[in-house]
Amino acid sequence: xxxxxxxxxxxxxxxxxxxxxxxxxxxxxxxxxxxxxxxxxxxxxxxxxxxxxxxxxxxxxxxxxxxxxxxxxxxxxxxxxxxxxxxxxxxxxxxxxxxxxxxxxxxxxxxxxxxxxxxxxxxxxxxxxxxxxxxxxxxxxxxxxxxxxxxxxxxxxxxxxxxxxxxxxxxxxxxxxxxxxxxxxxxxxxxxxxxxxxxxxxxxxxxxxxxxxxxxxxxxxxxxxxxxxxxxxxxxxxxxxxxxxxxxxxxxxxxxxxxxxxxxxxxxxxxxxxxxxxxxxxxxxxxxxxxxxxxxxxxxxxxxxxxxxxxxxxxxxxxxxxxxxxxxxxxxxxxxxxxxxxxxxxxxxxxxxxxxxxxxxxxxxxxxxxxxxxxxxxxxxxxxxxxxxxxxxxxxxxxxxxxxxxxxxxxxxxxxxxxxxxxxxxxxxxxxxxxxxxxxxxxxxxxxxxxxxxxxxxxxxxxxxxxxxxx
Length: 471
What we know:
Elements: E1 3-10, H1 14-25, E2 30-34, E3 48-50, H2 55-59, H3 66-76, H4 83-103, E4 107-111, E5 121-124, H5 127-142, E6 145-148, E7 151-158, E8 161-168, E9 174-184, H6 193-197, E10 208-209, H7 218-225, E11 230-231, E12 236-241, H8 248-253, E13 259-262, H9 277-285, E14 291-297, H10 298-306, H11 325-335, E15 340-343, H12 346-353, H13 357-373, E16 393-405, E17 408-410, E18 416-418, E19 424-430, E20 435-436, H14 450-468
Parallel strand pairs: 1-2, 1-9, 2-6, 9-19, 10-16, 17-20
Antiparallel strand pairs: 3-5, 4-5, 7-8, 8-9, 11-17, 12-16, 13-14, 14-16, 15-16, 18-19
């Protein structure tokens, strides 16, 4: 016997839960299909969400408007983003904050994640894990059924309309579920090595997924198979990552504007770009083996310990946090952990890392001469951060990582999945990382918290429209 629902949500992550709750609150019978043993996905790691014109902002006299955010978003994307989608998302974010408050979510404050950026990052108490817990509790109250251990395999059609899905359980047994509308919310394809290889990366080697598990893009694939159009595939939320994700204090150290070199021992960028992590990651993506090293000395390590770091790590480690760098380095060096280095000379450091010794010595001498002159004629680094290196040296290896895939299915402003002609596919919606069109080629960190916010807000929009259309 086939189980029938009004709305089937494929994926029980942030966007899927938001979609399901919204639909159920509108009186629809909702079924969530979840591949893992519990809901939530990577949303549990989120620190906060992007929102504009929220009551919280108004109480703090923050006057940044939705119109301003809309223009900034499109400008940053070089108008590659979908204007209708961007506008509907931004103007709905204040209602997402109200919705979360009703669920019992509390906020710590509103911040920016880049120097001089707009105050739009609404930090939640208990991080994303608390938001997920509140949504799980709401699902229980509403009687939303979540089926675990099921992987969606194909969309079912009634003529040109999506009418359900076929899934398999962990033993490979197929099942069929019917619904008036289906919402795809499977969280992207961060663990699909074959797909990612199509965009020039080798998963786990020169592109390291952070926090993702089992994200193979099933939802995107199923929609493409019935004629959906894609948008933004190959766009990632890139970020530098130290060896196998270092202890958090040393992860923060890798973002400091000391000397940064590539695998050839050559300096490659104005190191202050690390304060805008997607730009920093873009620079790393151009380097050999997508591998770089931060080099610093004992003097800088003591400065970060006594005066605090220049660049923070989100709200986990704000700027000016004091870090015992020498103590943390001693721990990892004593443990034999790879990717951390200490040496008494530049040549010794180059040999320890395994990069060309002559190149690193030339780079080191050139960098110190620029620091002594107080003018970086190579890359234009702010003189405040031109500090010559001497004595005992340290280095940390960094690879290119990513926090998620940012493209998927082309959607309209209602989160309906569309064909190459832009025509909505009846009965099919997408949300979160499965919905493309929000970004250009780079994540806009000035709109801090956008991925978490878009997961919540696009889920709500998709859930609302799926509950209104086809009835």
